[in-house]
Amino acid sequence: MRIVSLLPSATEIICELGLGDQLVGVTHECDHPAFVRGLPRVTQTLIPHDSSSREIDTLVREQLKTKQALYSLDMPVLEQLQPDLIVTQALCDVCAVAESEVSAAACRLTSLPKVVNLEPSRLSQVFDSLNIVGQAAGVEDRASEAVARLQARVDAVQRRSAGISNPARVVLLEWIDPPFSSGHWSPELVRMAGGVELIGQEAQPSRTIAWNDLVEANPDVLVIACCGFNVERTRQDLPILAANPGFDDLACVRSGRVYLIDGNSYFSRPGPRLVDGLEILAHALHPQVHPLPGGLPAALQVCQGAYPA
To answer: What's the pLDDT tens digit per position in 227-265?
Structure first.
């Protein structure tokens, strides 16, 4: 089977199922596992690579008004690949190729590929996605085994969290300029890790918040996992966050409990590495309860005063 993935999380799911050798095309954003960087790219983006967070937000909002996606298919490449299976999504209106464009492209290909749309909003639905892809690719047993492995790790975190008498009061931001609360699976991960998300709602979209919303919540722990950004890129926006009135008075800032996590790898993508994100988050919130598994990076703790202008 020749498989094309139209979103990074699908690429990671495909590889988790041991189908990496059947993957023939990926998006311009796919970077994990490392070997996929050498595969043909079947998408392109309208976002300039050097855009600021505010510029990206503005461009996204403009595209939402026109109901157009920020990404488009490279049809000549797709026609060369002639896939049997295309895995895409219908969850986010702008973060992947539009569903209508994918359907139209599939009809034009002589290979007449099957198109699988993934639309998870909770962690359990992410696990369902593995089973859906496994069924489409004829590897149902592998999918069941992968889900069982991931669920066992989640269960271990939840068992430890059950003994926590004082859950951490948390706000998880997935964007800084402007600030966005977390949504979909992220507040659920906070709960599983032994925290209470004060603004974001489980299985609901992330949303823009006013700075005063964060001030009023006054979290004991602030976790920043910017959508599509790694830790270093997120650090570049910390001065923007720190410039807001009352920032230094927040409980999380006074206690030095502001953490940065690679959102691109561990929170933005509804794939297997959300479980890594859960384990990293749990260790940050309750390090005495939740050990950090080997091979995973600890959340970066940002001490008070470490916000360069």
So the answer is: 999 999 999 999 999 999 999 999 999 999 999 999 999
73: left (phi over 0), alpha (psi -120 to 50) or beta: beta
Q: 45: part of which helix (H) or strand (E)?
A: strand 43-45
As its CATH architecture, domain 3-119 has 3-Layer(aba) Sandwich (3.40)
Decide whether 3-119 matches 165-302 in CATH topology. yes
CA-CA distance, 89 to 108, in Å (whole number)? 19
User: Whole-prediction pTM value?
Assistant: 0.94
Q: Going edge to edge, which strands form the sheet with 23-25?
A: 23-25, 3-5, 85-89, 114-118
**Domain spans, the chain:** 3-119, 165-302
pLDDT at 303 over 90: no
Contact 127, 152 (CB under 8 A): no
Domain 165-302, classified CATH 3.40.50.1980, yes or no: yes
